[in-house]
């Protein structure tokens, strides 16, 4: 039997429709949600992500402001821009696209963003709030994964969840969210001794490692829910240039109970949750 496909495009379309209605209502009351996006340098993948974020805003009736800086930009200029945006009451969300050039102190930049406008959920205070179960902006990719699990009514309480990857953007917040939902969570990473031992006992397996087709069908427990966070562009072989995830979809779908595709899985959900956080921030500002 092949797995149920969890369609991130369809779920995104439904949620974005609801967000557009909320944005229209806020706008009619005099508060149009507004997201400011800062892009430093010419990384082509980052440019595509930023373009998709801006386009997502436009379609949902959310205003977007885009600030682009050269690769050799001065950190002081970017920090000055963040200070201006923090002080501007018409701006509800501020996002600095990562990675930043090497001469930037990434942590200092993320901490400069006002906690109330940190729609990426990367500020240490939001991370701390999330870890303590307080209201916080939740990082968009893991938040999108939780929405996908909710959409298929995945049983989380008592489930064995295995997250591969321990990044600040995905792995760590993913583990916090699954723990809060009652799952027993194992975080695996490059130092994990017997990865297959862990993956094969997972009811929910989240792959966020950045290695194309790394998780193969033999690593998946029959019936498991497999969530593929990876977005990799294949550089060689017959599919060169195509996108693929961290999961070998073809072999994993024969074993899993449900699986997210790439493209069309977690990717669109990340932007949807960014729009949701921006609308939430504007809602708070309008109170
Ligand atoms: N780079 C990779 N993913 C993300 C993200 O979710 N937000 C930001 N700001 N940068 C990223």
TrEMBL record:
Q: Name one GO molecular function term.
A: methylenetetrahydrofolate dehydrogenase (NADP+) activity
Record-linked SUPFAM superfamilies = Aminoacid dehydrogenase-like, N-terminal domain, NAD(P)-binding Rossmann-fold domains
- State the UniProt keywords alphabetically: Amino-acid biosynthesis, Histidine biosynthesis, Hydrolase, Methionine biosynthesis, Multifunctional enzyme, NADP, One-carbon metabolism, Oxidoreductase, Purine biosynthesis
Domain named Tetrahydrofolate dehydrogenase/cyclohydrolase catalytic: which ranges? 6-120
Its Gene Ontology cellular component terms are: cytosol
* Role according to the record: Catalyzes the oxidation of 5,10-methylenetetrahydrofolate to 5,10-methenyltetrahydrofolate and then the hydrolysis of 5,10-methenyltetrahydrofolate to 10-formyltetrahydrofolate.
Tell me which HAMAP family the record gives: THF_DHG_CYH
Subunit structure comment from the entry:
Homodimer.
Family, according to the entry, reads as follows: Belongs to the tetrahydrofolate dehydrogenase/cyclohydrolase family.
Mind telling me what this protein is named? Bifunctional protein FolD
